[in-house]
Design a protein that fits this description.
heterodimer, A: alpha+beta, Aldehyde Oxidoreductase, domain 3, Aldehyde Oxidoreductase, domain 4, 3 domains, 7-stranded mixed sheet, 5-stranded mixed sheet, 22 helices, 34 strands, globular, B: alpha+beta, DNA polymerase, domain 1, 2 domains, 8 helices
């Protein structure tokens, strides 16, 4: 690894003191004079048509200022949502909004509004909608084929098999691809495992709900919102409100968690802006936990069948995947395709096929959730891999190695007959370093150990997911105060990447971090084009973009020094806040002097002339900053070696109590191929935090529906429970290790990790539970105590393995 | 007598709020539910028939300062802190005692601010995250430990965790990792940065022992 000054070193991010003193302002912490409070009227039914609305009693109440209905919103095209509706398609969907002088009055007003609803047929389980004559979640269809809404029914499939918990694979589908010959691959296999699998739907549950506050001043809207990506939320928010982007200032300095549910904000962020416009006063829309449960997005569940063929040496000859996706009522998620995409990478099957479709349901809307599809793939397939390892007599870690991607491995759906490839994969190396660091063989030796009624289980799982993007812009100015101001369009959602990636610019300048100021979180502060702060893209994309800006600034410093002090730029170097002669370091200019010189020179030195390939947003931002100092500005034009994917291998140890069915997570360790490590502590946070969200997918956070009425029973934390400290290993610190090999196609070689981390946790824990129960595979998430006890007692399962939300 | 003790002696057990008005207050700051729960008459519990029966202008001791504030009978402490006193460091994550983001200290004991009525804390000393830093900007050992360990991610849960940790190191300045986990388990972190949060707790305890 290269010898870096800042990269790979621990430090404390600049926002920590603000956070730990309570000064950090999240969306609900902003105030404006005369601020009103908004409340939403939620649909009590999963699918209904509004027949009439009578707001007279509410409007007569003192303190009620304005009411906003769906008819007043800028229109959106199906199957997208508007934020308010006259045809609610899920329980809790907002029908209208009220703004009043305080929240109590607004809540009282909501109670006094009479809404007459006509109930419509609803579906909470995709398979129910596919049944002949089954209900459709939307009036315009139950699925999307070739970007058109349509209705599909499985008239000729074996429904008795489905009722038994076996997924048939001959029903009509909408999406399909095949690489190689799967049937031939299965025929030549020495072992074929054929499993019906189920992955649950689950809410994102960020601790900060999707709150927003807005006011208008001189025709401009000011929106304070909880969002993942500041810059990339700006356009969607302006469109949602129906104004030009230049008429919107969007502020989001801190985001209390998103996990994919607030990538470009959220559809309801337009509501306080429109209420405020109507009332002529600021409006705070505080979303409660229960409202968040319904409007706060969720991961699509999958019901499917996976067939895998293995040679006796462990190599996978074929992988056949068939998925029905629980698509929620709006939009179109591609999780079921991502699952096959990632599976085709992780296990490198010699042939593979995906067949599937997404079915609309009257359950909370779906969106990308940390490793969308990737988590489902690992949770569903890792236990099958372990089963195969046992039947073939191969160490499960060795089975991962045998099938692991290496180098620029190929993956996914072919375009024009050609599959794409990744930029790098060091999975075998990650397996090796994990095996030695964590003493995998000693862990395995503990498998089956009894301690009273408890038995130990050991599991291992590989997870891979997207970890990069490119083509973004870096923008910084070195100003006459000698400081380097690094502008960041990405948001601050706790990953640290808004600061970590800025260090790439300081690395280029070989200058102390104390001399940097990161500017973020407010679109009036001139932010450059950035990633959506999702898909684990930020670390890769913005180390590149900020390095490009840093190198541009360095070139300009060298030129300025040569011009001022003589010689050629090559005679100079930059470090420690100075540009200086290589052969006589005492001769040089400090950043403050160089900044003044850049302003005098003007042109490209201070941003009055800009590179021609910048993204338009960056041109606007850089133009506003021109003349303030020496500008470093550049688009990321560094080479690429393919799709950027990171990898993690989770090692879990559990104890399952055979008398109570309780699962205790004793230990979790993770090794990773994440390219160059940028910040060890924020990497650790992603590896372990992501894994714990995976534990939650495997063991908790279960949705339960009253299927007769289509109403959700589990709508708060206590009934839909994310893990506490006591649910995860806590007696000893969890360990991690990184295979610190740079991605060869990126100048610093860094890759993202946030999403990859989750599947490693989920897959390893599911394998460990199966191991503890002696090949006790469930092929279903979450694994609940009642399922374990039923298995131990050899009782028939209480519900079909394909039943959703039970 | 401390400042807090010199405050209005009328205590929480005799404040005239009713279960009905409490529920209504929580609902107003919580979810909209069926109107039925609004009109239930809990006659036996009702002591006051009108909000005016409770003194609304009260004095609170918050972070060592006496603050006069106009409080509704059913108002929760988290709401008063955030919306009346400008102390937005205390976060509301769930409104209902499930997540701990609103944890504050009352006479040194951690409480969920979403589930305490403001009238219950008259005469008691309330401490929030804004009250930890010394006047000269020196951070409390727990705060310093957060900074030194790069603790927490999105940090929306951080104020609640930090207040609970202040109580932890006060009560037990030499906890094991397991003891710290048990003490802090009433706080949820959705980023699940539990491993580093426990590192913070042990570092904070170490700073406290050193003095």
């Amino acid at each position: 690894m290269a010898d870096y000054k800042l990269i790979g070193k621990n430090y404390s991010t600049a926002d920590l003191v603000a956070k730990v003193t309570g000064r950090a302002k999240y969306a609900e912490d902003f105030r404006a004079d005369g601020m009103l409070f908004a409340k939403l009227l939620p649909s009590p039914m999963p699918h209904a048509r509004v027949r009439s609305i009578d707001t007279s009693a509410a409007e007569a109440m003192p303190g009620v200022e304005v009411i906003l209905t769906a008819d007043e919103l800028p229109p959106v095209d199906a199957p997208n949502e508007a934020g308010l509706t006259n045809e609610p398609v899920y329980e809790g969907e907002p029908i209208l909004a009220v703004a009043a002088v305080d929240e109590t009055t607004a809540a009282d007003a909501i109670e006094r509004i009479r809404v007459e609803l006509e109930p419509l047929p609803f579906a909470v389980d995709p398979l129910e909608s596919l049944r002949p004559g089954g209900p459709d979640a939307r009036l315009d269809g139950n699925t999307m084929a070739n970007s058109e809404l349509t209705t599909i029914k499985w008239n000729d499939v074996d429904w008795a098999a489905i009722d038994r918990g076996e997924m048939p694979t001959d029903g009509p589908i909408t999406d399909e691809w095949e690489v190689g010959d799967v049937e031939a691959g299965l025929a030549e296999a020495d072992l074929v495992l054929d499993e019906t699998v189920f992955h649950q739907s689950m809410g994102h549950q960020p601790l900060e709900t999707r709150t927003a506050m807005a006011y208008w001043q001189n025709g401009k809207c000011y929106l304070y919102v909880s969002t993942q990506s500041t810059l990339r939320t700006h356009g969607p928010a302006a469109r949602g409100i129906g104004i030009a982007p230049e008429d919107l200032v969007l502020v989001s300095e801190y985001c209390g968690g998103g996990f994919g549910s607030k990538i470009a904000g959220f559809v309801q962020m337009r509501l306080p802006a429109l209420l405020s416009q109507k009332a002529g006063k600021p409006v705070m829309m505080r979303i409660t936990r229960q409202e968040e449960h319904f409007i706060g997005r969720a991961r699509p569940g999958l019901q499917g069948r996976v067939k895998i063929g293995y040679r006796s040496d462990g190599r996978i000859t074929a992988m056949d995947m068939f998925f029905v996706q629980d698509g929620g009522p709006y939009g179109f998620s591609t999780d079921f395709m991502n699952a096959a995409d990632q599976a085709s990478l992780m296990y490198q099957p010699l042939s593979h096929r995906l067949r599937g479709l997404s079915v609309y349901t009257n359950t909370p809307p779906r969106s990308a959730q940390r490793a969308p599809g990737g988590l489902q793939a690992v949770s569903m397939i890792a236990p099958i891999m372990q089963k195969a390892a046992n039947q073939l007599g191969i160490d499960p870690l060795e089975l991962i190695r045998i099938n692991a991607p290496a180098g620029q491995a190929k993956l996914g759906r072919p375009t024009n007959g050609e599959q794409g490839n990744v930029s790098s994969a060091f999975v075998r190396e990650a397996a090796d370093i994990g095996e030695s660091t964590f003493d995998w063989q000693a862990m395995r030796a503990r498998s089956g150990r009894r301690n009273g009624s408890k038995v130990t289980g050991i599991g291992v799982a590989l997870s891979s997911f997207n970890a990069g993007a490119w083509g973004m812009d870096g923008l910084l100015t070195i100003r006459p105060d000698g400081k380097v101001y690094i502008h960041q369009g990405v948001g601050n959602l706790g990953t640290g990447s808004v600061f970590d990636t800025a260090r790439a610019a300081m690395e280029a300048l070989q200058t102390d971090w104390d001399q940097a100021e990161v500017i973020w979180g407010d679109t009036s502060k001139h932010l450059p084009w950035s990633t959506v702060q999702a898909g684990s893209t930020t670390t890769h994309a913005h180390t590149r973009a900020n390095l490009a800006a840093g190198e541009d600034a360095k070139r300009k410093l060298l030129e300025i020094a040569a011009g001022a002090l003589g010689g050629s730029p090559d005679d100079y170097d930059v470090a420690d806040g100075r540009v200086f002669r290589r052969d006589y370091p005492r001769q040089g200019l400090g950043f403050a002097q160089a900044a003044r010189r850049a302003i005098e020179l003007g042109g490209r030195f201070d941003g009055h002339e800009l590179p021609g390939d910048l993204n338009p947003v960056t041109v606007t931002a850089a133009t506003a900053l021109a003349g303030l100092g020496l500008m470093g500005v550049a688009r990321d034009n560094y080479p690429l070696g393919g799709r950027v994917i990171s990898h993690a291998i989770g090692f879990a140890e559990v104890e399952v109590d055979l008398e109570t069915g309780a699962v205790v997570l004793k230990d979790y360790r993770v090794s990773t191929d994440v390219g160059t490590v940028i910040n060890p502590r924020t990497l650790e946070a992603q590896l372990h935090g992501g894994a714990i969200q995976g534990f939650s997918a495997a063991l908790g956070q279960k949705w339960t529906y009253d299927r007769r009425w289509g109403l959700q029973v589990s709508k708060r934390f206590y009934s839909n429970r994310p893990p506490t400290m006591l649910d995860v290993p806590h007696e000893e610190p969890m360990q991690w290790v990184a295979q610190d090999k740079p991605d060869p196609f990126s100048p610093m070689g860094a890759k993202g990790i946030g999403e990859t981390a989750e599947g490693a946790g989920s897959g390893a824990v599911l394998c460990a539970i199966a191991d503890a129960l002696g090949e006790g595979y469930f092929n279903r998430t979450p694994v609940m105590t009642d399922m374990i006890l039923t298995r131990i007692e050899n009782l028939p399962p209480a519900f079909s393995n394909l039943a959703a939300h039970v | 007598m401390s400042d807090a003790e010199r405050l209005d002696q009328q205590q929480a057990d005799d404040q005239g709020y009713s279960r009905r008005s409490f529920i209504k207050g929580v609902i107003a700051t919580g979810a909209s539910v069926s109107a039925a729960s609004y009109v239930l008459k809990n006659g036996a519990v009702v002591r006051a028939q009108a909000p005016g029966a409770v003194e609304r202008l009260v004095t609170l001791s918050v972070n060592g300062l006496l603050r006069r504030v106009d409080v509704l009978p059913q108002e929760t402490l988290a709401t008063t802190l955030r919306y009346k006193l400008g102390l937005t460091g205390t976060k509301i994550g769930c409104d209902r005692s499930e997540c701990g983001a609103c944890t504050v200290l009352i006479d040194g004991v951690p409480h969920y601010g979403c589930s305490m009525l403001t009238h219950q804390v008259r005469g008691r000393a309330v401490q929030t995250i804004e009250g930890l830093e010394a006047a000269d900007g020196t951070l409390h050992p727990v705060q310093q430990a957060v900074v030194d360990e790069q603790g927490f991610q999105c940090a929306f849960c951080m104020p609640g965790f930090v207040m609970n940790m202040v109580a932890l190191v006060d009560e037990n300045p030499n906890p094991t990792r397991k003891e710290a986990a048990h003490f802090l388990s009433g706080n949820l972190c959705r980023c699940a940065d539990y491993n580093k949060i426990l590192n913070v707790a042990l570092r904070a305890a170490e700073y406290t022992r050193r003095g």
